[in-house]
Amino acid sequence: MISKKLQDAINEQINAEMWSSNLYLSMSVFFAKEGFNGFASWMKHQSHEEMGHAYSMMDYMIKRGGTPVVGMINVVPTGWGSPLEVFESAYKHEVHISELIDKLVDVAAAERDKASQDFLWGFVREQVEEEATIKDIVDKLRIAGTTGIFYIDAQLGQRK
Ligand SMILES: [Fe+2]
Ligand SMILES: [Fe+2]
Predict the structure, then answer these.
(1) How far is the CA of 12 from the centre of ligand 2 (A)?
(2) CA of residue 20 to ligand 2 center, whole Å
(3) Using N-to-C axis directions, what is the helix angle for 114-143 and 146-156, rounded to 10°?
């Protein structure tokens, strides 16, 4: 059985994951409108992935006798200037999410809940990959000229 304190903390994270999903969906729409169909498709995949994180946390809470909350999601940003700016915002957001997950592990540790610590460490590791993937895209966009941006767009469009 999961403690009330940890349930509340995980529910906050579930909300943050759903917010992330909407953020990336908003970025996907922005890219689609700008004609960057590869980036739009990549961001839609990312949006799905974030919803997947929320689902997985909800499933875990149920298994441990907790009650996941499907709460209200705050509004997400809608306008950016360039593909580089979008991916820079995405990178900043992932760094922020990594901090939230770290704090969540601290709550699980303070509650002496080993199973939850183990479950949450999976997200700590996943954040390393997410940060690295998006940082790589930011680095490439920084050095790319106009032609280069369309090449990266085509490449990211291949994400399955
Ligand atoms: Fe996530
Ligand atoms: Fe993420």
Answers:
(1) 15
(2) 7
(3) 150
Question: Which residues of the chain register pLDDT less than 70?
Answer: none
Which ligand gives the minimal distance to the CA of 23? 2
Tell me the C-alpha to C-alpha distance, in Å, between residue 139 and each of 74, 83, 97, 135, 155: 30, 12, 20, 6, 15
Q: What are the residues whose beta carbon lies below 5 Å from ligand 2 (ion)? A: 130
Question: Which ligand lies nearest to the CA atom of residue 13 in the structure?
Answer: 1
For each of the domains in the chain, give its residue range(s) and CATH number, in order of start.
Answer: 4-70+80-156 (1.20.1260.10)
- Structure tokens that stand for 131 in this block: 């940060």
Helices 37-63 and 4-34: angle between axes, nearest 10 degrees: 170
User: What digits encode the pLDDT tens for the residues 30-77?
Assistant: 999 999 999 999 999 999 999 999 999 999 999 999 999 999 999 999
As to burial, measured by CB atoms within 10 angstroms (0-12 exposed, 13-18 middle, 19+ buried), residue 34 is middle
- Note the Cα 4 to chain centre separation in Å: 25
